[in-house]
Design brief:
By secondary structure, this protein is α+β, with helices and mostly antiparallel strands. The protein has 12 helices and 12 strands. Among the domains are: about 150 residues, no CATH class; about 110 residues, no CATH class. The chain has a 4-stranded mixed beta sheet. It is elongated and about 95 Å long.
Length: about 375
């Protein structure tokens, strides 16, 4: 099309000189995959939203995800015959005719084993957990030298049923010394899949070594359990320091609470003690936050404590102190998921002076609770 007027002449002249404007600009922008996370396989968005929430029980979250993955795998195992028929009907992976015949009948002969010894024929694979496929294949093993030297092995007429080996999270499948054709379910790890919008703790757990996501989550659960056990062993130290305690009277009572050695020679708090010099309403029945310890950026455990009066028909006797301490570690919501901090130096000095004043009022002997 020829444009008229002065501007048309000028544009045409510039075009002849190589200065023409490029009017065929691209109308699209190349997408960056990392900016658009893919749908997370094997997990619904409702579940993911709950898992992404900070705070709450990390143990429960891990166990819930593990149950989901196990359920997805068991569901596929239940569809085994449907999947095999689908491969035969729709084509699926390219399979030799002899293999298709065996799949159709569900049986094999020794001649088939010898012809396809060592072969693995994929039947179905699906990513039912992020970065992990659950795969079904038929594996063929003639048994090696042991079976080759056994009498009566070569029987090309007898039809033998193809057995199924379901995946066990406790023991990986190995058919090195076995003879036969079997259906085998296996987990396979694909670390380059994704990216998926997962909480950091789940991404880290699934990136571990090995093919089985259930085992990886169990390993992560074991790590969390050991961490919790360590916290419980350090309860006496946290109670005495009381980094989150606001009430000066309760803080001083807990600081002086008596302890004893357990069978592992670790300090543990005694269940009961004598407390004199303070009115019971100043410390009895008041549940307090003692400490808060973070596991990661989104999860923490809080130590709570409460002092109660034991129910006794008669006045407390020597060797039977009336005040009982109950302390518990619990996963905390987001607002408390912050590591307990050491008070500033000036604040610590003021608290120490206040504690000395309170201690003077307490008729309380931490090394002897059996007065």
């Amino acid at each position: 099309m020829v444009k008229g007027g002065l501007f048309g002449w000028l544009e045409s002249s510039l075009g002849l000189c190589g200065w023409a404007e490029n009017t065929n600009r691209q109308k699209w922008v190349r997408a960056t995959p990392d900016l658009f996370p893919r749908e997370v396989p094997g997990m619904t968005e409702d579940v993911l939203e709950e898992l992404r929430l900070a705070g709450g029980s990390l143990e429960s979250k891990i166990q819930r995800v593990s149950n989901i993955f196990r359920g997805n795998a068991r569901h596929l195992e239940g569809l085994q015959q449907v999947l095999i028929r689908s491969v035969l009907r729709d084509g699926g992976p390219e399979l030799p005719q002899q293999v298709r015949d065996v799949l159709t009948k569900g049986t094999y002969t020794d001649a088939f084993l010898n012809a396809f010894d060592g072969h693995v024929f994929p039947i179905h694979a699906k990513e039912v957990a992020p970065y992990h496929e659950f795969q079904l294949a038929m594996e063929v093993r003639a048994g090696g030298k042991y079976w080759a030297g056994s009498a009566g092995v070569q029987d090309d007429e007898t039809q033998q049923k193809i057995e199924t080996i379901g995946y066990s999270a406790d023991e990986a499948v190995s058919l090195g010394g076995e003879r036969g054709a079997v259906f085998v379910w296996r987990w396979v790890h694909f670390p380059d899949r994704g990216p998926y919008d997962l909480p950091a703790w789940l991404t880290g757990a699934l990136a571990g070594e090995g093919p089985d996501p259930e085992r990886k989550l169990q390993n992560e659960l074991d790590v969390v359990d050991r961490w919790i056990q360590q916290l419980r062993q350090e309860t006496a130290d946290y109670v005495r320091k009381g980094p989150e305690l606001k009430d000066p009277y309760i803080r001083e009572v807990l600081r002086l609470w008596p302890s004893e050695m357990d069978i592992h020679q670790r300090q543990q708090l005694k269940k009961c003690a004598w407390i004199e010099g303070l009115e019971p309403e100043m410390f009895v029945g008041r549940k307090v936050l003692v400490a808060c310890v973070s596991y990661d950026a989104s999860h923490a455990m809080a130590l709570g404590a409460i002092i109660s009066k034991r129910h006794q028909e008669e006045p407390a006797q020597e060797g039977d102190p009336p005040s009982k301490l109950t302390s518990t570690w619990q996963w905390t919501p987001l607002e408390n998921a912050k590591e307990s901090e050491k008070p500033a130096e000036g604040v610590a000095d003021a608290e120490a002076q206040e504690a000395d004043a309170i201690s003077g009022k307490l008729g309380y002997f931490p090394e002897d609770d059996s007065r």
